């Protein structure tokens, strides 16, 4: 018989860092509300959650690396919003945030959930932060919970 190992959707006993960009805070505050809702619904206590505010999405990789180096959190949830403008700035910021966070997770072994919206319009960002398309902050937290649980099982 096969042995199936998968993460559970319970955050009880797990510790989380939520790194939130202040840039586009009218969106990121909604993502944070969604992430906190997911954590609380799945059993996380407030003292198990650290919220770290940073200027923008460019600062995610260095911040996530510093948080992971503390070895105090089972997962890191990164929440931001990069909205396309008229310059190539969007591609640089979104691409570096994504690749930098992937590197942090791979190099440190700490799950890093990517809750950074990359949208073409403000309307799309609003939709993905609690309007028509759900709340991607909630989704990122659920991913962090499942991965933290899975990695805990794999260590035992």
Task: Provide an overview of this structure.
The protein has five helices and four strands, in the order E-H-E-H-E-H-E-H-H. It has 156 residues and is α/β, with parallel strands linked by helices. It has one domain: Rossmann fold (3-Layer(aba) Sandwich). The protein has a four-stranded parallel β-sheet, sandwiched between helices. Helix 3 links the parallel strand 3 and strand 4. The chain starts with 15 loop residues before the first strand and ends with a helix.
CATH topology: Rossmann fold
Biggest sheet overview:
4 strands, parallel
What is the CA–CA distance across the termini?
20 Å
Name of the top-level CATH class: Alpha Beta
Question: What class, by secondary structure content?
Answer: alpha/beta
Shape: globular
User: What strand line-up does the widest sheet have?
Assistant: 2-1-3-4
Give the topology, please:
Layout: E1 16-21, H1 25-41, E2 49-54, H2 60-70, E3 75-83, H3 89-108, E4 112-119, H4 122-128, H5 136-155
Parallel strand pairs: 1-2, 1-3, 3-4
Helix pairs in contact: 1-5, 2-3
């Amino acid at each position: 018989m096969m042995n199936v190992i998968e993460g559970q959707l319970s955050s009880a006993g797990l510790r989380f860092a939520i790194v939130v960009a202040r840039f586009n805070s009218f969106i990121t505050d909604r993502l944070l509300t969604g992430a906190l809702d997911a954590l609380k619904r799945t059993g996380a206590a407030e003292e198990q959650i650290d919220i770290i505010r940073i200027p923008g999405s460019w600062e995610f990789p260095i911040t996530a690396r510093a948080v992971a180096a503390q070895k105090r959190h089972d997962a890191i949830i990164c929440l931001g919003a990069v909205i396309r403008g008229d310059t190539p700035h969007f591609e640089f910021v979104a691409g570096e945030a994504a690749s930098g966070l992937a590197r942090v997770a791979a190099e440190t072994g700490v799950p890093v959930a990517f809750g950074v919206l990359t949208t073409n319009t403000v309307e799309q960002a609003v939709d993905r932060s609690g309007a028509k398309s759900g709340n991607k902050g909630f989704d990122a937290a659920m991913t962090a919970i499942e991965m933290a649980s899975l990695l805990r099982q794999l260590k035992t």
